[in-house]
Design goal:
The structure holds two protein chains of two kinds. By secondary structure, chain A is mainly alpha-helical. Chain A has helices spanning 5-14, 21-38, 73-77; strands at 83-84, 87-88. Chain A has a domain at 5-43: Histone, subunit A (Orthogonal Bundle), CATH 1.10.20. The radius of gyration of chain A is 23 Å and the shape is flat. By secondary structure, chain B is an alpha/beta fold. The radius of gyration of chain B is 21 Å and the shape is globular. Chain B has 16 helices and eleven strands. The chains are: A mainly alpha, B alpha/beta.
């Protein structure tokens, strides 16, 4: 499988990554090489094999529905790049 | 002091041969003297270290000290440390000061009886977001291998291993998603263990690939590793993948006999691609195990050659999802002057992530995208089960699996940076254990041209005690692990 620079631009858009134009070509070559290596998987006979998402046969643990965490809003906002009046600031979304 | 084992350091502290403050200062001085050449630390936390050391001295005087109280350590910079920058080797988190401690940080560093009372010297360098096998992808620059400053220390836990190998810390924490504890341990003559998936809490450990990531330790011996792994392990309700099961006594298990231990040798691990010098050393190690009373058995892990392609679907897919949280809004790098929210996301991530992280996010995004999901992601998950079943079958007949950790010795800095596929092949022997979720470790077994070679032991789920026992018995009979690099005596 080989990816074109145009496909790299599409994937970067999906991943919300701004790439410099001169990077696109380079990434296309490298990622195509990686996918060529990955294509080896198609040789494996996986007829009837169940996909394995997780190494341990476990179910999601449940806990009692009680408050366990204290409010840490100020500590969390203290590390944000831009806040005002207790809210996170982003560029205007609705005109 | 920097050459003593953890048990010797603990005994020295109790006998008042030296104080925890003197011990911490000794290592801080060595860091100041040597780390300019190595770049193994991103942050050195000298002030906090001395405060923790004074608390340890008080606990030792009061008789409330735990086994590891006052022993210094380096924390890989992937573990959140409250009030201390936690960068994960990335520009994205260059200014991130963690608002809370990872569970293992509390377990290792809180005063006894809540924690082990260890003393943090600083935060160790690493590949960016733990993505790399050479520590060259770090935003803070490459780490040098203390055995040869022109060579890589391996990765992603390159700072952890370089610091311990050079005697800048007695022990260090590390993490392993595809070999990031074992491969660097192999390249720097250390003993490194990745326990069973779910054995050590991942709360506060910055996520890379959540079905593979596991925390562990790099040390100068299996005995040292056993002490620290003991203190790190255990159930944590804050980590939904943590396993609620008692922790075995790793230290007590070290001294058992390994007579009759059944060791499997997978033929796929001794095929083409293994450096002949490394092969000779590993074959000698096998003979040593036989001399210690173990029996060896030829086995096959037929799907293991597909580990690398499986991993490079599963890990990037999970990474692309985990790293979606870095948005320039709540924490981490934020691009200046973005006009729209989408531009803010794209530029913050474009500026904040380095090339390897961007490549993996794009691969992950691609294999999860509509039309490719079945061919890549679902297929990889099926092959993952085949790899897991290989091990399941093997452990019906053998106790441990032995093979190489890496294909050879440390390579030159810069020699593989332009070829991601060649770089990924470094982990050909280590990835299968992560895919299966089983514990695995690397320990020194000799030198080729003055550079260390490690062998790998893999065990069944929760067989850490048996693996550490087998490693310790080998280390009682050999002295490879006692060798240290010339420039850092």
């Amino acid at each position: 499988m080989s990816l074109s620079p145009e496909q790299i631009r599409q994937v970067a858009q999906l991943a919300r990554l701004q790439l410099a134009p001169e990077q696109t070509e380079h990434y296309a070559v490298q990622i195509s090489n990686i996918l060529a290596m990955v294509d080896e998987l198609s040789r494996a006979d996986t007829e009837g094999v169940l996909p394995m998402a997780h190494p341990l046969d476990m179910v999601q643990r449940l806990r009692p529905d009680v408050v366990s965490e204290t409010n840490q809003r100020e500590a969390m906002q203290a590390i944000a790049p831009q806040v005002a009046d207790g809210v996170y600031l982003v560029p205007r979304v609705i005109e | 002091m920097h050459t003593l084992s953890i048990a010797e350091l603990a005994a020295g502290l109790r006998a008042r041969k030296f104080s925890a403050r003197e011990l911490a200062q000794t290592f801080l001085d060595r860091i100041a003297q040597h780390d300019g050449a190595l770049n193994s630390f991103i942050s050195v936390t000298a002030e906090q270290a001395l405060v923790q050391a004074d608390a340890a001295d008080a606990a030792l005087a009061a008789g409330t000290a735990a086994a590891l109280t006052g022993i210094p350590l380096a924390q890989k910079d992937i573990f959140c440390t409250q009030g201390v920058r936690t960068s994960c080797g990335s520009k994205m988190l260059d200014s991130f000061v963690a608002p809370y401690n990872a569970t293992i940080v509390d377990k290792l560093q809180a005063p006894s009886p809540q924690g082990a009372g260890m003393v943090m010297l600083g935060k160790a360098n690493m590949d960016e977001f733990a993505m790399g096998s050479s520590n060259e992808t770090s935003f803070y620059g490459p780490v040098k291998n203390p055995w040869d400053l022109e060579r890589v220390p391996g990765g992603s836990s390159g700072g952890s291993v370089a610091a311990v190998a050079a005697g800048l810390a007695p022990v260090a924490t590390a993490t392993d998603t595809g070999g990031s504890i074992r491969q660097p341990a192999s390249l720097t003559n250390l003993t490194g263990i990745k326990p069973t998936y779910g054995r050590v809490s991942r709360y506060g450990m910055i996520a890379f690939a959540s079905s593979l990531d596991q925390a562990g330790v790099v040390a100068r011996s299996a005995e040292d590793a056993a002490y620290v792994l003991q203190a790190m392990s255990g159930f944590d309700p804050r980590d939904s993948t943590s396993v609620d099961r008692p922790v075995d006594d790793y230290v007590a298990a070290l001294n058992g006999s390994i007579k009759g231990l059944k060791i499997g040798l997978p033929k796929e691990y001794f095929a083409e691609g293994l450096d002949p010098g490394a092969r000779t050393l590993i074959e000698a190690a096998i003979k040593q195990y036989e001399a210690l009373g173990a029996t060896v058995h030829d086995i096959s892990l037929p799907s293991s050659p597909l580990s690398v392609p499986t991993y490079y679907v599963v890990a990037p897919a999970e990474a692309s999802s985990n790293l979606a949280r870095f948005d320039g809004v709540r924490y981490g790098h934020r691009a200046e002057g973005a006009k729209t929210l989408e531009e803010l996301y794209k530029r913050s991530r474009g500026e904040g992530f380095g090339a390897e992280v961007q490549r993996r996010i794009m691969i992950g995004t691609y294999v999860l995208s509509h039309g490719y999901f079945d061919a890549y992601y679902l297929k990889a998950q099926k092959v993952r089960r085949l790899i897991y079943e290989d091990f399941k079958r093997a452990f019906e007949t053998v106790d441990l699996v032995l093979g190489p950790t890496a294909t050879g010795t440390a390579f030159k800095i810069g020699s593989k940076t332009d070829d991601p596929v060649a770089m990924y092949m470094n982990d050909i022997y280590t990835i299968a254990a992560n895919l299966a979720g089983i514990p695995a470790m690397s320990l020194p077994c000799g030198f080729v041209d003055g550079l260390p070679v490690g062998m790998q032991l893999m065990g069944n789920f929760f067989s850490e005690a048996r693996m550490l026992n087998a490693a310790h018995q080998y280390q009682l009979a050999t002295d490879f692990h006692k060798q240290s690099p010339k420039g850092f005596k």
